[in-house]
Amino acid sequence: MFTTVESFINEYQRESNTTQQLLDTLTDASLNQPQAEGYRPLGYIAWHLVHTDRGMLLGTGLKFEAPSAASMPPSEAAAIADAYRTTTAGILEAVRTQFTDAKLQEVVNMFGMQWTISETLFAYLKHEIHHRGQLTILMRQAGLPVIGAYGPAKEQWASMGMPIPAL
């Protein structure tokens, strides 16, 4: 969990930078890449990373601007990437100005459970990482390059001057 506001800010900046790089790689055509019958396509997953930021974080009392969760995903990949960039900047500014280290230990009702704000911020990051994983699989299926979040992706080994690991 996070014991300081600065520790969350540092971690969120790292994670959101990785997410932003992936979103910046999307193409308009890739937004229609399906998961499976009856599931939302890549564009919905990407948009979920933008608008759902409000849900969990609003439960902590944090106030910032983000698109409505009821809004349909844009049909342009650049619009999704730009909305994520703007939302992320708003979250970072809100955390810097509205939270203190002591406030992180306050308890809030989250999904019918009692979580500290620190626990909520931690879960929020894990939620983004979970959906980012879904995004990378769909991006590969759509023929887009991906980046490694915690180590090199297959495409990155060569640029590092190293052989791609054998299967």
Automatic annotation (TrEMBL):
<dbReference type="InterPro" id="IPR034660">
    <property type="entry name" value="DinB/YfiT-like"/>
</dbReference>
<protein>
    <recommendedName>
        <fullName>Damage-inducible protein DinB</fullName>
    </recommendedName>
</protein>
<keyword id="KW-0479">Metal-binding</keyword>
<dbReference type="InterPro" id="IPR007837">
    <property type="entry name" value="DinB"/>
</dbReference>
<dbReference type="Pfam" id="PF05163">
    <property type="entry name" value="DinB"/>
</dbReference>
<comment type="similarity">
    <text>Belongs to the DinB family.</text>
</comment>
